[in-house]
TrEMBL record:
<dbReference type="Pfam" id="PF16363">
    <property type="entry name" value="GDP_Man_Dehyd"/>
</dbReference>
<dbReference type="GO" id="GO:0003978">
    <property type="term" value="F:UDP-glucose 4-epimerase activity"/>
</dbReference>
<comment type="similarity">
    <text>Belongs to the NAD(P)-dependent epimerase/dehydratase family.</text>
</comment>
<comment type="pathway">
    <text>Carbohydrate metabolism; galactose metabolism.</text>
</comment>
<keyword id="KW-0413">Isomerase</keyword>
<dbReference type="InterPro" id="IPR016040">
    <property type="entry name" value="NAD(P)-bd_dom"/>
</dbReference>
<protein>
    <recommendedName>
        <fullName>UDP-glucose 4-epimerase</fullName>
        <ecNumber>5.1.3.2</ecNumber>
    </recommendedName>
</protein>
<comment type="subunit">
    <text>Homodimer.</text>
</comment>
<keyword id="KW-0520">NAD</keyword>
<feature type="domain" description="NAD(P)-binding">
    <location>
        <begin position="4"/>
        <end position="325"/>
    </location>
</feature>
<dbReference type="InterPro" id="IPR036291">
    <property type="entry name" value="NAD(P)-bd_dom_sf"/>
</dbReference>
<dbReference type="InterPro" id="IPR005886">
    <property type="entry name" value="UDP_G4E"/>
</dbReference>
<keyword id="KW-0119">Carbohydrate metabolism</keyword>
């Protein structure tokens, strides 16, 4: 069975390709490489002994995308491709809307033309906005505070409207909490461009000596240690959630659109993560407590019961595993994919 993975050379996409290949799926990847490297495919091959069919395609180029559908008998799509930096999205919002929304509309159109209706979409916990109580439950009202987040809210709405108009659409919307860690092989992981925006890659770059110290954004939140609390999820657990979602789409006779939180259902503070990382890596992480980062909220985590009851999915890896694997990746690849394969 051919599965098309858009954005399959990126952080979460590459880990999902590994799990798809391990389960015997044939994998076709389209990615424009705006935030990833082709080097990842060699590494995926080292891990799985199998290769993906890669096409360097921008989703904004509908004709190129259509040719990929003509080449393979694609049965389902996992759609990761998109721009994802919250801060950057406030600087260049129209690029975010154009890339994420037009790219998705092109994909949906080409899928429908080829009668492919099974879709797993990468959404985010950011769609719960800032006014919902925690833990977040899937039926809560949606809204977001950044242009990036609004692209996710809007795409979720596109998908609902598409299903309402034509119930051949069969869609699983996965709302990720905070994906971190790396494949335990240390061959693939997160390789951000420039200064990392997110906590774990910043910590690993401090540990490997690329950054002097961590800035902890906010020490005065109403949380036990004053730092922000998030629901961190190991990227391999997250990747496995996509397989469960695909299996459900393929097995159900009644087509549907459903949203699922993919999180652990547990919150850890920034300082909890720092301590866990120091223990797992045996490295000291110097840090300064800084003012809060604009747009951050004190605390959120998932209610992950729906994914367990309907997809049969739950996390199996701990914060310790996340830190160990993130460190294994970073220490073996100090320059990410530009590092030589050991
Ligand atoms: N990493 C997170 O913290 C997080 C959290 C919630 C949701 N998500 C979502 O999950 C998805 C994957 O995230 P990731 O962390 O792997 O990001 P990533 O940047 O590593 O991967 C996204 C991939 O999409 C590609 N891409 C972007 N625009 C494209 C286009 N127009 N055409 C073709 N390819 C394009 C990029 O080159 C990249 O390889 C994204 O949609 C992101 O918004 C990520
Ligand atoms: O250098 C840093 C980076 C982060 N943090 C703190 O660490 C926590 C986690 O921050 P991240 O930037 O790693 O993650 P966010 O929760 O802000 O956001 C991430 O997860 C969200 C979904 O949960 C969205 O998908 C979003 O796109 C994605 O970046 C926050 O309290 C943040 O203030 C620091 O203290 N220092």
């Amino acid at each position: 069975m051919f599965v098309l993975v858009t954005g399959g050379s990126g952080f979460i996409g590459s880990h999902t390709c590994v799990e798809l290949l391990n389960q015997g799926y044939d994998v076709v990847v389209v990615d424009n490489l705006c935030n990833s490297s082709v080097e990842v495919f060699q590494r995926i091959e080292c891990i799985t002994g199998k290769s993906v069919f890669f096409h360097q395609v921008d989703l904004l180029n509908k004709e190129s995308l259509a040719r990929v559908f003509e080449t393979y008998s694609i049965q389902a799509v996992i759609h990761f491709a998109g721009l994802k930096a919250v801060g950057e999205s406030t600087q260049i919002p129209l690029n975010y809307y154009h890339n994420n929304l037009t790219g998705t509309l092109n994909l949906l159109d080409v899928m429908a033309q080829n009668k492919v209706f099974d879709l797993v979409f990468s959404s985010s916990a950011t769609v719960y906005g800032e006014n919902n109580p925690i833990p977040y439950v899937e039926h809560f009202p949606l809204g977001s505070t950044s242009p990036y987040g609004r692209t996710k809210v809007m795409i979720e709405q596109f998908l609902k409207d598409a299903y309402a108009s034509d119930n051949r659409w069969n869609v699983s919307v996965l709302r990720y909490f905070n994906p971190v860690g790396a494949h335990p092989s240390g061959l693939i992981g997160e390789d951000p461009n420039g200064i990392p925006n997110n906590l774990m890659p910043f910590i690993t770059q401090v540990a490997v000596g690329k950054r002097e110290k961590l800035n902890v954004f906010g020490g005065d939140y109403p949380t036990p240690d004053g730092t922000g609390i998030r629901d961190y999820i190991h990227v391999v657990d997250l990747a496995l959630g996509h397989i469960k979602a695909l299996e459900k789409l393929a097995s159900q006779t009644e087509k549907s659109i459903d949203a699922y939180n993919l999180g652990a259902g547990v919150g850890y503070s920034v300082l909890d993560v720092v301590k866990a990382f120091e223990k797992a890596s045996d490295q000291k992480i110097p840090y300064d407590i800084m003012p809060r980062r604009a747009g951050d909220i004190a605390e959120f985590y998932a209610n992950a019961e729906k994914a367990l009851s309907e997809l049969g999915w739950q996390v199996s890896l701990s914060l310790e595993d996340m830190c160990r694997d993130a460190w294994n990746w970073q220490s073996n690849n100090p320059d990410g994919y530009a590092s030589k394969l050991k």
